[in-house]
Amino acid sequence: MTSLRLLACQIEIPETRSAAARDKHLDQLEQKILAHAAPEQYDLIVLPELSSIEYSEAAFKALDQLEEPLAGPSYDMVSDLARRLKSVISFGFPHRGARGRHISQGIMGPDGGLIGRYDKIHIAQFGASAEAPYFSAGESLLTVDVAGFRIAPLICYDIRFPGLTERLRKADVDLVIQSGAYGRDFSYSSWHAFARVRAIENQIAWLGLNRAGAFWGGS
Question: What digits encode the pLDDT tens for the residues 34-82?
């Protein structure tokens, strides 16, 4: 029977409002993952939404310093880590591209090369989420094959739109890796219900991954 060895990293992310703070966090994150994973131990390692930076409006106001091109500091760290561990890694970063700034999830292959990038399609603007002034919506879904399974990333608020998951079901996706930044505001309790409903109505396995900390958690 085919199996998927998966490491879901509910990580705590410190205050990052400068490039230096972000880069220090990325260095520490690499060491934390290396402490929990050996080469070829996992087929897939998943990190939360915007795993390279703090999720807050204060950090978003500093995006001129924190945003990255596709081949930026997050790419370099994860590329090195993927090669060392011989694993596929899904990682979140604020990407500055040709169509603006996006909340992106990159998928890095075990050879250290990028397999693909998903830009969050639905931008959240309520409660603890204040993304609309800072980020543009993505346009396309992404599927990748890992260890015989078809896998697709979604990001946080995307879960509220059933048409996205239906499209993934029609693409024969086996597992959705939904990376989020779910703060404990009035809407926090709803995301588990959305995940269960989307998984059940489409008969797709589901990973809902949050960041760690007293205000976050609950993956």
Answer: 999 999 999 999 999 999 999 999 999 999 999 999 999 999 999 999 9
Distance of CA 203 to CAs 155, 172, 175, 195, 198, Å?
19, 10, 10, 12, 8
- pTM here is 0.96
Which tokens hold the place of 206? 């589901």
Encode pLDDT of 119-151 as tens digits.
Answer: 999 999 887 788 999 999 999 999 999 999 999
3-state secondary structure of 28: helix
Nearest in space to 112 (alpha carbons), one of 150, 148, 75: 75
Parallel, antiparallel or unpaired: strands 175-179 and 149-155: parallel
- Between CA 10 and CA 218 the distance in angstroms is 9
Taking a C-beta distance cutoff of 8 angstroms, is the pair 216, 208 a contact? no
Q: How far apart are CA 94 and CA 85, in angstroms?
A: 24
> How far, in Å, CA of 216 to CA of 212, rounded?
5
Quick check: 56 and 65 in contact, CB under 8 A?
A: no
Single-letter code of the amino acid located at 101: R
Rounded Cα distance, 59 and 73, in Å: 17
C-alpha span between 218 and 130 (Å, rounded)? 21
* Beta-ladder partners of 208: 178
CA dihedral 155, 156, 162, 165 (to 10 degrees): 30
Please list the residues that pair with 102 across neighbouring strands. Answer: 95
Cross-strand pairs, 108 = 89, 114
